[in-house]
User: Fold Protein PsiB from Rhizobium leguminosarum bv. phaseoli.
Amino acid sequence: MRSFRAAELPDRNSIASISGLIGSDLIQMIRFDDMHSLFVGEEALRVGLTAFTIFDGYPIPLAGQIALLGGDGSKPYRSPSITMTEAARRFECCRPVLDPVFAPMDRVANKGLIVAGALESLQVRIDRRSPVLL
Assistant:
């Protein structure tokens, strides 16, 4: 489950500090609103992804560490002027889940009877939840 927590940015005017905070050398800035920016690692969406985040109004899922900072880059970044609770309302934490599908009791196949309760397949669904605030 993805959690939200406060973090300290050592140098508010340094991209290197933001990169260190989110753990990625290749970062992308996304406008959160007129007064805030999101920073996310570019290479976080990759094969083997076990969780991702949906940001309200943004067309692609986000993965990895995400930093929310006050400012638009024209001045040094600062702490957000909104609460974590307010920010969290714009996110959904998602993870793919595999649900087993079992054969029904009266199922008959071309080659004979299928044992009731035998695993027939797996269905994929996306579990969506609000972030946990720490």
Remarks:
- The mean pLDDT is 86.
- The helical segments are 15-22, 84-88.
- Residues 3-94 form one domain.
- The radius of gyration is 21 Å.
